[in-house]
Every structure is written in structure tokens, then in C-alpha cells.
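Quick note —
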Amino acid sequence: MKDVVAVIMGGGQGSRLFPLTRDRAKPAVPVAGRVRLIDIPVSNCINSGIQQIFVLTQFQSASLNRHLYQTYHFGTLSDAGVHLLAAEQTMTNRDWFQGTADAVRRSLRHILTPRTRKVIILAGDHLYRMNYAAFVQRHDQAKADVTLSACPVDEEAARGFGLMHVNDQGLITRFAEKPTGGALEAMRVDPNKPIGGHAPGAPFLASMGIYVFAPEVLLELLKSHPDKHDFGKEIIPAALDEYRMAAHFFKGYWEDIGTIAAFYRANVNLTKRGEYSLYDPDFPLFTRPRYLSPSRVNEARIEQSLIAEGSIIGRCSITGSVVGIRSRIHDGCELDGALVMGHDLYETETERAAALARGRPELGIGEGTIIRRAIIDKNTRIGRNVRIINEENVQDADGLNYYIRDGIVIIARDAVVPDDTVI
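Predicted structure written out below.
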């Protein structure tokens, strides 16, 4: 895999994840209480033996760039590592990246070398674990020019993805981006019929938005279609008429973190057995080491939840929740299905007293507060006896210090929620 180059798309705005993407790029959004979305594809690359990893950044990239710089150091005796490629002006192009394909097109001069045998294009906002060596092996065995990773999905999920239809050898014969009606039905496959030696197990094959290219094919595709800026919508359909394309079947856990509902669901799934595992010793999930102390729990009742390091938990009840690093949860709190992202810094006793003297809650979740089915972003100050429960089941709304999307309440980063507030 030393001659395989990975390119991770990290520059998207992620508008459907607002307000979590208000102040950060989507791949920089925290997940599982202690890592960021970008850590997932980077960890997959490292565990797969890929040594040349490029992350293309653009929108709100400061925290993403800082995280990557502080986390991934491969040593000084080789050119292996994680390389940041930001959108840049050149003598021939003064614009921002116009899409995923445009970003790769304008970055190829930094990415390809004469030794590059394959290029793997990855999304920076998916939750899954994959050994890309098997992906590249499938590409080689199929003698393909382009290979797409396909995840079997049911009809309800299929409507939100690009779908592929394949022949008995697993070669792609048709591709449709988010089809509906008759076009959707035309993409149906037999879930029990072996395709390339594997039965899909579901009636549709969704493109995971990750691809393996022969470098000369990638160059030719991007050069011959200069007006096409997106891989899924434009480049892949165009390639189908010109090149041999294969499907690589993936049957593990996969979640495309495209919406608040998907983000919330993915985090809650992490608290359950049988979903994406955070504990695989042979395929670890890497992130920045923070050297925090163990969490301190004082007579709390905690069920099916994740508690990240450095947290201080009082006499409270936590169920089906994710509690991020350096969280402070006081006595009498009740968390049920809550995603608490934690804090970047600890608040000293002097700072805490000063905040209270100004009438501001301290960092963390105050005494007697109840939070259900909500996302609490970083560095928030939630006062005492607050109720974040969305009792009226509002689906979408914007408030003074909160947002509701898909029925889930989001307290934005750095927000202050006064004592006795009801949301």
C-alpha cells in the first residue's frame, strides 16, 4: 500500500449540520465524545498501511487544520504523513474549490508522483471501519479503471444515495444519483443472488462516495471534463460510458453524517453493542492525545453511555448518552439520549467564581437540569434547573440560544443558557 495515495475531502460547508458547522468544518465536528469525524478516514488509512494521506480543506478550516497538525506525526525520516492542501489561488485559477472533483483536479499536481499506483478518494464525514487494502485488491482483481465501494441498503435509505446496478461479475452497468419512482425501481438488485461471489443482502447498492482510480484514468477524467465539479453527480456517471468500473461490497456498519438526525443517530448507536465498535485493538481509532486525568464519578447512575476522560460527574442519572472530554455535570442532573461534547479547557475556581458573580452559569451543566434527546456543543454554560426536553415535539425552530433540527435540540457552541430556562 506504499504506492497508494489517499485523498480525503475535508472542505465542505456541511450546511445540513448547522449549527454544529457554524464555527468549524464538518470533518472537525466531534464524535464519540473524544474524536473528530476526520479521525475516522485517517485512522482507516493508517490501519490499512497507506502512508501518503492528503486532506483537502477550505471552509472554516482553522480547527480542522490545527487538529491534524497536532495529531498526526509520522516522523522525519520519510515523506509519509498527513498533508494539508488548502484551496489556493494560482496564476490560472482564482476561485474556491467548486466541488469534490474540482478540489482534486486542482490539487493533483501536489498529490501524484511517478510512483503512485492507485489513488483512493475518501469522504471526511462518514462513520465506518474499512481496510482499504481489500478495496484496492478488489480493484486490481477486477482489472478496473475505477472502483466504487457499495453498501447494501433498504429502499427507504436508497433514496438518499447514488445507486449502482451491477452484472454477475460485480461490474457497474448503471449509476443513478438519488433516483425516485421508476428510476429507483430500475436500480433494484436481487438481494440473494451472488454478485462477484457475494450476495448483497439488501435490494439496493448505495455508493459510499469513496473511489479507487488508476492515476492516469483520474487525470484523463478530470482533464476531459473541466466543467464537471462533483464526483458523485458528474464524474462517476461520465466515467461509466468510458471506463471499466467495478463495485467493492462493504457490509459493515456505515453512517453518512449528512444531517443532524444522522449525526445524532450515529452517536447514540455508539453506546450500543453490535454497532460500530470503538474498541478494536487491531484497528484502533486515532486522535490527538490530551493526557487528561480519569473521569471522576460521584454516586451517579450511568447506563449504556460513553463517558470521556477528564470529566467530573456528580450525583446524577445518565442514560443512553455520550459525555465528552472535560465535561462537568452537577448533582441532580438527568441526561437521557444526550450528546454532550464537553469543553476545550477546564475552568478554574477563580474563573468559576467570577462567572457566577457576573450572573453567568459556570462551564458545564448546572444542578437539577434535565436534558433529553439533545446535542450540547462545546464550551456551553447551562444553568441550574434548566429543562431541555422539547416537550411539544417541535421539529425545526431557531431560538435565542438554541436550535431545533429533526426534533433534536441543539445548544450551540459557547452558548449560555440561564437558570430555570425551558426549551
